[in-house]
Amino acid sequence: MQKTILSGNEAFARAAYEAGVTVASAYPGTPSTEILENITQYERIDASWAPNEKVALEVGIGASIGGARTIVTMKHVGVNVAADPLFTFSYTGVRGGMVLVVADDPEMHSSQDEQDSRHYARFAKVPMFEPADSQEALDFTRLAFEVSEQFDAPIMVRSTTRISHSKSIVELGEPLMELPETGLVRDPSKFVMLPGNARIRHPLVEKRLEEMSEWACTQGFNRIEAGDGKLGIITSGVAYQYAREVFPDADILKLGLVYPLPKQMIRDFAARFDTLYVIEELDPFIEEQVKAMGINVIGKEKVPICGELSPGRLRQAFDLNPPNLPPIKEDLPPRPPNMCPGCPHRGVFHALNRLKAYVTGDIGCYTLGFMPPLSAMDTCICMGASIGNATGLSKVLNEEDRKKVVAVIGDSTFLHTGINGLMDMVYNKSTATVLILDNSTTGMTGRQDNPSTGFTLDGQLADQVDLEALCRALGVKHVETVDPAQMDTTRKVIKEAMERPEVSVVITRRPCVLIKHENVVEDLPPLYVKTDKCVACKACLTIGCPAIEWETGKDGSKGNCKVDRLLCNGCQVCMQLCKFDAFGVCDD
Ligand code: SF4
Ligand code: SF4
Q1: 30, 110, 338, 345: which to mutate for ligand 1, most atoms within 8 A of CB?
Q2: DSSP state of 322
Q3: Which of 442, 549, 561, 543 is nearest to 52 (CA)?
Q4: From atom 5 of ligand 1, which residue's Cα is the shortest distance away?
Q5: CB of residue 512 inside a 6 A radius of ligand 1
Q6: Are 434 and 506 in contact (CB under 8 A)?
Q7: What's the pLDDT at 191?
Q8: Quick check: 329 and 400 in contact, CB under 8 A?
Q9: Of 363, 365, 411, 520, which is best to mutate to test ligand 1, by the most ligand atoms within 8 angstroms of its C-beta?
Q10: For residue 319, is pLDDT > 80?
């Protein structure tokens, strides 16, 4: 069979293809985003972005009930959104095999918290595989579809950032050519979870887990790697790779199915060792279950519970000397996160800063409005929370302070879960202002489309949600749209909205400069600084654009700013801040 190098996310996509999946749905979120983007290369799979993870899962459930093999992908925080249908789907079981790939983000490289999705598997009583490299990402996911149908259960496959984004050699399999038969099958006792039906399903779910625990003791995805017999380690996922490297002589029980655990296999393994460790990333998920079986193991007493594991961290935890490797260069300059040069959000946050607004923020590129010099974000909780946060805050403030509250949310996030907050705001007579930062894409995860962009995942033209009409339909009387590159107008419109004693929405509309569809973003010439006119007032630096640099003065002169023309997108926002006409437009 052909061998190739794939990232974990590419391997998940390939597995779906090989397993005969015909429907895929997701909401983008790092580190899971590229799974669906890679699935689009397989033409027989109908892949689409959903407005949020709950909808994505509901689409997957519908397709499974119709008999199709289905994959749904999301990042860990997305499972919070999708939890409601997930728990009930665990009871109904499947028709076509259904796999939910969830990518956790230990170390929070790109997330607001550090969740361990293995708890969701246990909580929802959904079996979970955990691959340790790209080959296992493909093999386990492909197998998960069979297991799903064999045990009548949706199956979760857990990835982490290192698995999703690292590449390793993968042997591809033959794709299933005979696709599952689809069509309507009426089976209300299985799929209508009224209490009477659900009560019958629950014992079946418990029995399923017991049977799987026994079955998993004899399957190759849970395996023992023999060592010198002195030290036993139970591990899974990427933690297996670190354990293998740090303890090359240990006996390792590597779990491929982390829920339900293969209890008898664990008992037999544990009986051979005086000292047994559980090495796992994030929570003591395996450790606590093994301890509950009456087995003495050492886990989080040694292995850190916070952050991402690595061989170095593991060595440190076990007081082991580091191997003789060349030192890592640690004097790299710090690179704080920043919005791109020309980002349409920058002018909005400049305005909010000047207006001394109290900003309830949300999840997206614009969360970086928190960073200096813009420093214009005061809260950020989760997707869609900004609007509800603003409502709650306004309820407890005096009239003067209430006017300062502004919720900021992106177009994609508004459609994800912001709509309900705005509905509540109108219904319950809040007075806060909502800014919808419409950059015509889902910027932070890498520019994916959403129902307001006019394109589907595979670039086909689509009907667009009219955000202004939608807000009006929710009952908002004052809806205004501005170009955030027009600094004075933007500030004026936001100020007027803040003064209004009722809900008002300002839509700031300008496309993300990195957008990939043709003719969406204007190609503007870069700027330059006329050094003879620059008086070094530094007003332009308050916008925090990475294309503007400061050149320190030589021979005691004040210095001046200059523009890096390779970075400048020509948005001219900085130009509007300069009172000395020191910016010019390049004409070459
Ligand atoms: S990706 Fe787009 S929206 Fe995000 S910071 Fe860059 S320009 Fe702004
Ligand atoms: S705002 Fe104008 S005068 Fe002030 S530092 Fe920038 S370019 Fe120079």
Answers
A1: 345
A2: P
A3: 442
A4: 339
A5: yes
A6: yes
A7: 97
A8: no
A9: 365
A10: yes
